[in-house]
Amino acid sequence: MGTTSHATALASALRAYFRYRSTCGDSVYGLLGVIASPAHWNLATLPHALKLDEVKRLLDSFTSSLPFPKRGLAIVHCLLDMGLRCCEVAQLQLSDIDWYAGTVTLRHTKSRRQDILPLPAVTGEALADYVCHERPKTTNPAVFVRCLAPHDKPIGVYAIQRVIRDAYRRIGLKHGCTHALRHTLACRLIDHGSSLKEVADVLRHRSLNTTLIYAKLDNRRLVAVALPWPGSTT
């Protein structure tokens, strides 16, 4: 199923092609006017989040039959519990984790600033289990390092995305959106009564407008402001 962005790119490519054909002498310039760009409104879609049973099945899918289950589980917890981006997980250093204070320092964020986040207990346990029992011996300071050659190097963003996509596939989810784990955290915060400002702080959005999409998922508050349908008795 095509997305709006894919349709926009296709329309742009067609217009570029017809302009090229026009410069070649073909009578196709009139076709440019009939290629309309698809409508695209901000905040038109709903964020794709995992349901509670899907989260449980996702976490349970990292069994001992996998090559590196502890690493995969730790990666998922970083995305799901703290809302980290894949690039932030890949760049995480051992020195960024303060085990005694229970915090994680992000030094290479999307907004190019340093953020200090609380380390949830379940995430810390997953990280400690991986570091102590599965992380290869290496001098590289990255938390998540390669288990296969070339050694002594951190894993990349693609490897993290592949871990998530493979986990989705194991539990029967057809999409491969790693960002869905951040959406899941935001939806969980909304369900527990957090404000949009609090969600924005957790996800480290630079603008509150980015967080407004989650307002459509706050059914409790939406019911309170909904107007009665014209002609209805309630």
Key traits:
3 strands; single chain; three-stranded antiparallel beta sheet; mainly alpha; 4% strand; 234 residues; 46% helix; 10 helices
What is the structure about, briefly put?
The chain is mainly alpha-helical and 234 residues long.
Question: Describe it for me?
Answer:
The protein is 46% helix and 4% strand. The chain is built from 10 helices and 3 strands. The chain has helices at residues 4-23, 52-60, 69-82, 86-90, 121-133, 157-171, 180-191, 196-203, 208-211, 219-225, and strands at residues 97-98, 103-106, 115-118. It has a 3-stranded antiparallel beta sheet with strand order 1-2-3, with no helix packed on it. 24% of the residues are buried. The mean pLDDT is 82.
List the helices and strands and how they pair.
Blueprint: H1 4-23, H2 52-60, H3 69-82, H4 86-90, E1 97-98, E2 103-106, E3 115-118, H5 121-133, H6 157-171, H7 180-191, H8 196-203, H9 208-211, H10 219-225
Antiparallel strand pairs: 1-2, 2-3
Residue share in helix = 40-55%
Cα gyration radius (Å):
23 Å
Strand order of the largest sheet: 1-2-3
Mean pLDDT: 82
Supply the number of helical segments.
10
Strand count, sense and closure of the main sheet? 3 strands, antiparallel
Task: Give the beta-strand count.
Answer: 3
Shape label: globular
**Could you say which structural class the secondary elements and strand pairing correspond to?**
mainly alpha
**Strand content bin:** under 5%
Helix and strand element order: HHHHEEEHHHHHH
Distance between the termini: 39 Å
